[in-house]
Amino acid sequence: MHLHKYEKWWLMLGGGTLIIFLSVIGISAFAMGHAPPSDHMTIDPQKVSETKPFDEPGLKQIGENEYELVMVSQAFTFLPNEVQIPKGATVHFKVTSKDVVHGFAVTKTNINMMITPGHINSITHTFDEEGSYLILCNEYCGAGHQVMSARIEVS
Ligand code: CUA
Fold first, then answer.
1. Does 135 contact ligand 1 (Cβ within 6 A)?
2. Cβ neighbour number for residue 126 with a 10 Å cutoff
3. Is the CB of 150 under 6 A from ligand 1?
4. For residues 68 and 79, is the Cβ–Cβ distance under 8 A?
5. Quick one: 29 and 60 in the same domain?
6. Per-residue pLDDT tens for 73-91?
7. Number of domains in the chain
8. pLDDT at 148 over 90
9. pLDDT value for 35
10. Are the CB atoms for 127 and 87 separated by under 8 Å?
């Protein structure tokens, strides 16, 4: 079979692009451990405030420089609304919603989750830099959506 020179170029370009894309996905998933936020854990959204650990939202130390941060999203706020985190701490977030779908994005980090009622989202982040981090709801959730925010202070 005869392939024209330009056809070969196009085949190489297409094949090369495919290999690059698959390598990027493969490396980020298997070597760097990137994965969609887990929502395998479920919860009754009617009983969030009675269900552990969401009955006591807040920051809990669970190891040396390691913390669990339990947060509840509800129209139109996050509980707790302000969190102090020591610099260098590794924080395991656990977030759920009491009512509708909310967003949970933390500025200056890769944290960006969709908080669906009935599910518990978890993600881990290490705060290596001091400063103020804004938590934003980035899913439209109703009339007060634009005021729904909280703050993390790392010092
Ligand atoms: Cu909660 Cu928008």
1. no
2. 12
3. no
4. no
5. no
6. 999 999 999 999 999 999 9
7. 2
8. yes
9. 73
10. yes
For ligand 1, what atom is nearest to the CA of residue 144?
Answer: 2
Query: Domain holding 72: CATH number?
Result: 2.60.40.420
Based on the fold, state whether residues 22 and 65 are members of the same structural domain. no
Q: What is the whole-number distance in angstroms between the Cα of residue 52 and the centre of ligand 1?
A: 23
Residue 147 belongs to some domain of the structure: yes
Check pocket membership of 59 for ligand 1, CB cut-off 6 A. no
Rg of the chain over all Cα atoms, to the nearest angstrom: 21
In a domain, 38, yes or no: no
Is the preceding peptide bond at 80 cis, omega within 30 degrees of 0?
yes
Q: Is the same domain home to 54 and 105?
A: yes
Look over the chain and give the mean of its residue pLDDT values, rounded to a whole number.
93
Q: Which domain holds residue 26?
A: 1-33
Q: What is the pTM of this model?
A: 0.76
Residue nearest atom 1 of ligand 1, based on CA coordinates: 102
Question: Looking at the domain assignment, is residue 39 inside a domain?
Answer: no
Residue 37 has pLDDT above 70, yes or no: no
